[in-house]
Amino acid sequence: MGGMPTSSSVAEEIAFRVVAPNLELADNQKHLPTYLFYYPDCEPLARRIVEASQGQVQLGNIRWGHFADSFPDVFVTDAPKIRNRHVAFLASFHNPGVILEQKGVIDTLLDQFLASFTIILPYFPTGTSERVENPGDVATASTLAGIVSDVKMSRCGRSPLIIFDIHALQERFYFGQNVLPLLESGVPLLRQRLKQLPSQDDITIAYPDEGAWKRFHFQFGDYQEVICTKVRDGNKRIVQLKEGRPAGRHVIIVDDLVQSGGTLLECQRLLTSMGASAVSAYVTHGVFPRESWRKFQAAPGSDAAAPFKYFWITDSCPKTCQAVENQAPFEILSLATPIAAALQL
User: Fold this and answer.
1) pTM of the model as a whole
2) How far is CA 254 from the centre of its chain?
3) Which of 21, 89, 103, 233 is deepest in the core (most CB within 10 A)?
């Protein structure tokens, strides 16, 4: 039968409509917390970020799994809640096998009509393979930068990409136009920690090579410095002192990352032989493949002390943090506060 709809039928029709969340916000709802989604290994850091944000960040939920053929089976549980919201994703690309599922999550989040989107990748893992020196060399840093950059724009335009102490600053130019690299440093966390040491006046900052000095020396202008250098002796590269006086000082070696740790150990032996009262180390990224962090501990059953008094790393590499937590001489300096500050809108 025809005719005009009754008022009751119109009301019923309206009741059945799906109203998108956050389209009409009361005045006290306009500054809602940023949703932070994260890869499972990053959960400890994600929770620290929420705590450091003082209510400005809340965690989002994702169900992570795999099908029988090992391909990702992932579902963004909170997708209906994030329309018109500020959203961030905390990633860990520590293994090529985990990149696909995280890239899929990033793409799915950007499909939800977000107010803004931020990618947090504390450690950019292919940063040490950033240039081509011989025909046929594959610069995987450029490859990964292309993958990360291949994202849709949010309503606010380019997505900020937060990275800490990228290995080579020129790598920022590898990223495409859809992301806006924000290159942060973990060094301020080290400076805060050094102020807590009883021997502040005896501290000297050391660099394992000229590259590290160029990268970090401007952040330590108020400290005495030591610069080491590597020279070739046949097929070997030997660490030597280039300038500075380590004798009687607590020397802190600073670099962006450590892998096997061979260079750091050579520097420690050199500085100790030249009279340093103690040697410690700081790296933003403790990569430590194949548990190479163990060589920095005191030998089991030995009375000899560990080679380093302190070894500071950040929580940019979650697998390493899990392995070395509460293991001397390691201390973990969390990136949670600077990340929370970067997410403030």
Assistant:
1) 0.88
2) 17
3) 89
Provide the b/e sequence for 220-245 (b: ≥16 CB within 10 Å).
Answer: beebebbbbbbeeeeeeeebebeebe
Partners of residue 334 on adjacent β-strands: none
How does residue 279 score in pLDDT terms, banded at 50, 70 and 90?
Answer: very high
Dihedral, CA of residue 73, residue 316, residue 117 and residue 178, to nearest 10: -100
Q: Which helix (H) or strand (E) holds 306?
A: none
Q: Which helix (H) or strand (E) holds 243?
A: strand 236-243
| CA angle, 35 then 40 then 46, to 5° | 45
Written as six digits, the tokens of 51 are 């705590």
Q: Is the dihedral of CA 243, 165, 101, 130 positive or negative?
A: negative
Query: Which token pair is 72?
Result: 């990702």
pLDDT band at 228 (very low <50, low <70, confident <90, very high): very high
Could you tell me if 270 and 242 are in contact, meaning their C-beta atoms sit under 8 angstroms apart?
no
